Amino acid sequence: MVHQDRRRFAHAALTLAWWCIYVGACVGGTVGTASGAEASPVSEDSPVSFVNDVVPVLTKAGCNSGVCHAKAGGGQNGFQLSLLGFEPLEDYDHLVLEGRGRRLFPAAPEQSLLLRKVSGRTPHRGGIPLPPDSTGYRVLKRWIAQGTPRGDTSVQLQALRVVPGEHRLEAGTTQQLSAIAHYKDGSTRDVTSLALFETNDSGMATVTAGGLVTAFNVPGRVGVMVRYQGLVSIFNAAIPLGADFEAPTSYNFIDDHVFSNLKQIGVPSSELCNDATFLRRVTLDIAGRLPSGEEAKVFLHDDDPQKRAKWIDRLLRSPSYADYFANKWTALLKNRRDDASDITSNFAFHAWVRDSLLANVPYDQLVKELLAATGTVIANPAVAWYKRVKEPKQQMEDVAQLFLGVRMQCAQCHHHPFERWSQDDYYGLSAFFTRVGRKPTGIQGEDLIFHNRGTAEAKNIKTGKMIPPAALGDLVGNIAPDDDPRLTLSQWLSDKNNPFFAKALVNRYWKHFFKRGLIEPEDDIRDTNPPTNPALLAALEDHFLSSGFDLKELIRAITNSRAYQLKAIPADGNLVDRQNYSRFYPRRLQAEVLLDAIDELTGATTNFANLPLGTKAIALPDNSYNKSSPFLRVFGRPESLSVCECERVQSASLAQSLHLMNATDLKSKLSVTGGTAQKLADDTTPLNERVSELYYAAFSRAPNESETNVALEFLRAGNKHAAGSDAASKVSRQQFEDLIWALINTKEFLFNH
User: Fold this and answer.
1) Are 667 and 604 in contact (CB under 8 A)?
2) How much is the pLDDT for 75?
3) Is residue 256 part of a domain?
4) What DSSP string runs through 583-627?
5) Which of 96, 97, 334, 689 has its C-alpha lying 20 to 30 A from 454's C-alpha?
């Protein structure tokens, strides 16, 4: 009992001393900043501010990261901090007042549990983030010794500036960055040692914890994010290759910006691709199909200098264009079949999207019809989207990511770690969907969607505050209870001053045709993820706006550019280029496109339930057909669970290789009765002409001499026992099946190049 009383007395004495020091330190405390043009660090004798000194130290050390004490679900071992220090006053309460003050001992700072943990003197699963000789450790020690004051919270951070803001950085060289904090009282401070640095492409450049950037030999533009206390600044570096060359002739405004950028960074472009390559490439990209052998021969023998532009226009008028892009959009809009009752709404929604694309309905109008849809699926198919996406928060997140290129998911629980969006921004945007009403109809599984009159608002689950509709910082005014807030949102989306809507679409379509977005990922547009060619992105956005949100005109501009029509074969000096479009970047055919291409080459047909015979895979209305098609599953057709393009698998796999080698469905296509192999075997034309027909169908070109000789040798080798004067022209169907199988397994067939 004596020892227990002594411990209680000691604890009470320490607590009393702590409060005495704390009260004294809170009187007249100031932020340690230096005024003037240039910033200076905090002096050793200045009062320490929890907000402006302690929190940045904890952030730099990683204590308030998502894997440590800012972990969702209560932090670590009962100690919780806000993510990256976005809620410093809450952090103060957690650190100073919780746990009966056991984490801090102002009378003996070095014995504080906080310092013992971060320095490794007490076992700590987070390692030793702040050794005793580190600046951060000394700041924490001084703060505890001063009585753990909050400091003057009126001195608030206003802006963060990185110096330099941009620079031309030669490969192999370094650049030291400085982070300067600007406060509302006019003071500035060098916070380089406390800021967090992160590059957006570690393959192009690295950055140390102290802000030293090192450039590698990959040319292009790289950004370094500098973060301090919830604010972010960006350092942009251009890494040149240094080659001197003559820029090629531009075909349109896209080329002006692409080739100007290449000239600046010294990366030469590849040559223009030939007609066969262009024909196959653009037909796959616009219509999702291979050109027929006859189309290829006609195009290659056409002398019209405008034939490429005319072919593009022809593709944009074709039903295949609408099928292919409807397949893209309905997958992103989650047109999936969860049960049998979904079939009506799925078919109707797909048909609505397809018909809108074929009629070239302006993009802003299409989005308005989707978001503001009311009624039933039969009367208004666009309401089917609300069948899949039912909750206001999910509706908002999908709209933001798909149509604005902004990922808001993080802001639901905390301030977005890489952006300026707060929880109020999250709930303000979701408030537009809080008045969506629904009630069941006489059809099983179907709802009537309507505007439920009332005040639109969403509750911030953390603060309990009711948030009115707000469009990512833009004021939209008061919305009357009788007005549908979705109409206000639609008007804001299509406003020409909207900084996201048109930009997100042109970046998404640029990636469709060039494999890589100007901003990557294509649906993650933020200040901390700068475009690789800002001038080009701005020009595409202006062009799209001036055209009246014309999707076909955007495609026409992209595919008519010389940049799109460059060879995939690298030129001297541009092999390492990964983001500047100095050449065409080959990509694997999508699952649906590849299945249709195999059907076209083999003369087979894939039948799908509840659809007319001969329906192409690119025209499938929903994800349900993945279950009945092993091919579509193996090659990564998405299940429409997400608005992210990343759900579609474009990478190669062992399963794909094995499927192409010996899958039952592929074998049946090769040997189908009346298929290409049988027709070629029964044909009496010269064997070399039949080989040529096969190459035109597969690659949109004639075989070269070497390819012809190899094919003829293979076909004749299997027919060496044939007798008669015409034996040389007779080849078994099996031989042609094997030849077609070999062509299907070539990279030239499996890739769009």
Assistant:
1) no
2) 52
3) no
4) S---EEPPHHHHHHHHHHHHT-----TTS-TT--GGG--STTHHH
5) 334
Residue at token pair 């009346």:
674
pTM of the model: 0.84
Domain boundary among 145, 178, 196: 145
Q: Is residue 10 part of a domain?
A: yes
Amino acid occupying residue 571: A
Where are the extended beta strands (E) located within 607-713?
none
DSSP SS3 for 195: coil
Same domain flag for 368 and 467: yes
Number of domains composing the chain: 4
Its domain, for residue 131, covers: 2-30+48-145
CA R_g for the chain: 32
Structure tokens at 643: 């608005």
Return the number of other C-beta atoms located less than 10 Å from residue 315's C-beta. Answer: 22
Q: Are residues 95 and 14 in the same domain?
A: yes
Same-domain check for residues 484 and 407: yes
Residue 451 shares a structural domain with residue 369: yes
| Opening angle at CA 268, ends 266 and 269, nearest 5 | 140
Q: Biggest alpha carbon distance in the chain?
A: 118
Give the angle subtended at the CA of 330 by the CAs of 325 and 334, to the nearest 5°. 155
30: DSSP letter: -
Do 171 and 122 lie in one domain? The reply is no
Residue written as tokens 């604010």? 231
Residue position matching structure tokens 């009332």 = 454
For residue 386, give both structure tokens. 């609300």
70 and 128 in a common domain: yes
Question: CB neighbours (10 Å) of residue 620?
Answer: 24
Contacting residues for 426 by C-beta, under 8 A, at least 6 apart: 393, 396, 408, 411, 412
Average pLDDT per consecutive 10 residues, the chain (753 residues; last block may be shorter): 39 39 34 37 67 80 62 57 70 72 78 78 71 82 82 78 90 92 88 88 90 90 86 88 81 96 90 97 97 96 96 98 97 89 89 97 96 92 92 91 86 61 83 90 84 88 85 80 92 91 97 95 86 94 97 98 96 87 95 96 92 93 90 92 88 91 91 93 92 96 95 82 51 92 96 96
What gap in Å lies between CA 202 and CA 102, rounded to an integer? 41
Cβ burial 683-698 (10 Å sphere, 16+ → b, else e): eeeebeebbbbbbbbb
**Taken in order 532, 535, 536, 538, is the CA torsion positive or negative?**
positive
Length reported for the chain: 753
How far CA 435 is from CA of 3, 164, 395, in Å, comes to 65, 48, 12
Q: How far apart are CA 350 and CA 116, in angstroms?
A: 62
Of 203, 224, 239, which residue sits at a domain end? Answer: 239
85 and 206 assigned to the same domain: no
